[in-house]
Write a structure and sequence with these properties.
The chain has 93 residues and is of the alpha+beta class. It has a single domain, classed as YefM-like fold (3-Layer(aba) Sandwich). 58% of the residues lie in helices and 15% in strands. A hairpin with a 2-residue loop joins strand 2 (35-39) and strand 3. It is elongated, with a radius of gyration of 22 Å.
């Protein structure tokens, strides 16, 4: 399920983007929605606000970490909480 909803104005040919770059950038900033740029009727690129992009990258990093943690659990690479606590106390004491 996508976080984004698209309107017709969110899909634009690259030629329109070239002719109206400032307006398209303002649209992205104002709406928070990405703009899909097309070439010959096919998707070519997606333009997103920098903050939205950073949030997506952060979320992907978190999901990757969760996936790695779940793989560790499935493989039995775990430490009991009391043992972990003692290891940390010894390391930082």
């Amino acid at each position: 399920m996508s976080k984004f909803s698209f309107n017709l104005e969110d899909i634009q040919p690259v030629s329109d983007f070239r002719a109206n770059t400032a307006a398209v950038l303002q649209q992205v900033r104002d709406t928070g929605r990405p703009v899909v740029l097309t070439q010959r009727g096919r998707g070519a690129a997606v333009l997103v606000d920098v903050a939205v992009f950073q949030n997506l990258v952060d979320e992907l990093d978190e999901l990757r970490d969760i996936h790695l943690g779940l793989a560790d659990v499935a493989a039995g690479r775990v430490t009991k909480s009391e043992e972990a606590r003692l290891q940390l106390l010894n390391r930082f004491a």
